[in-house]
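Possible race condition, two jobs.
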Amino acid sequence: MIGIYQEPIGGIPCLHVIDQKFAGEERPVVVYFHGFTSAKEQNLPIAYMLAEKGFRVLLPDALHHGERSSGLSDNERQLAFFEIVLKNINELDIIRQYLIKNKLLKENRLGVAGTSMGGITTSAALVKYPWVNTAAVMMGTPKLQEYAKQLLYYVEKNGQSPFTKEELDDLFKQLAEIDLSSHMESLRERPLMFWHGENDKVVPFEHSSSFYQTVKSYYKKKEHLQFIGEKGREHKVSIPAMHCAADWFERYLM
């Protein structure tokens, strides 16, 4: 039987999803980050698929989302987008330390995945953390700086930017350090899967598809890198895509 438990970790509200027969054991773990304006509960379908395969799955609520909602307006939260991504990345290490301390992680088999903003978090985590073993980016972008410039363009187009030049310089300095498209060598052939809807109007399909074509030369083990484009699909992860991601982790993390 699959159990779903509320599990606060270092102040981070999380759902802990695990087959109850493995509850107290060290297991391979997948941390799955939700998308912008979403919440941890919305990723329970893929968490269930992963738990059925024997994984321990943790679904954290991002800053200003779910149980951590702080009353920000939609515009204010949009302006905090990269603050949220950076917070996600730092909190991933808190989650890992919790798993190690409580003997819940088997042999450093830690995988990371996420939807949209969570996929962006996943791409950046691969740069920062060599201990991320396997990853799946679901309609996220590995081109962090390029996407930030795109979002900033829309902010400025709709009114004066609230950011000072110094604030933007500091933000782009931080993003440059974790932009996977600028640090492809950091992958070290770790298993990485991309899924993206070809009609996505929120996060450009071209970002992940062009990155995939470029990064292929960094992989001698071609089977460790996969890109799946789904025809006619917009900014919503399909059930077949969830199965593909669950199978990916079963192949390379279990």
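Job #2 (started ~2 s after job #1):
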Amino acid sequence: MNTLNKIEPLENLSLVDKAEIRILKFFKENNLKPGDAIPKELEFSEAFGVSRTVVREALLRLRTLGIVDSKKHRGMILTQPDIINNFERILDPTLLGDDTLRNLFELRLIMEMGIADFLFEHKTQKDMDELERIVTLEEETSYEKDRFSLDREIAFHGKLYQMSNNATVQRFQSLLLPVFEYVYLEESKKNKTDYQYSSGQFVTHRMLMDNLKVGTPETYRSAMRRHLEPHFDHALKNGKK
């Protein structure tokens, strides 16, 4: 049997797509950094052999993403994009597909498990005092401590992410909380029975806080895994086949 050559895909890009790709390639090949000036529309247009309208549309896309910006007296410059801001524009759970929601749901679980070492490294007494107030208020106002609540998650886990001392993580987790609740509640509609924890006990926010006080990153991760056990089961049992 003769060996067949690899079948190449058909190129299905518009002129604007191609111009956008070429402009980004130009930035990389010339090692441009945020703040550096970039060529004018006309220069790109003549170099690419396309109209200025095509280049303008390509630059508009990059400007929307925060990659380029226009500055008075300087023209267009390369900027440092705000990655989280771009996520904020599209992370509406009702507009995302099931696979995307599932992946984002799993991403927050991954982040929760990976944050332990940073918490133990950066925690302060002030942080722990504030965490104590959050947990105490939760206990005084909550009668269903074994149920997922977005408000309680934002207060407690939001503080944990703040304690990580990582600004990007703090902003990203706030985006994932609605997705986290949305996927979990959608699954809960299918299963009305109370969840049975493998250890026979739900690990509360207070238990997590106490572990953070006297435990280690390893013991904390174990406690957090038990705290999030229903969500891990949901993700692992109902994930992509």
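The CA atoms of residues 43 and 52 lie 9 Å apart.
Logs attached separately.
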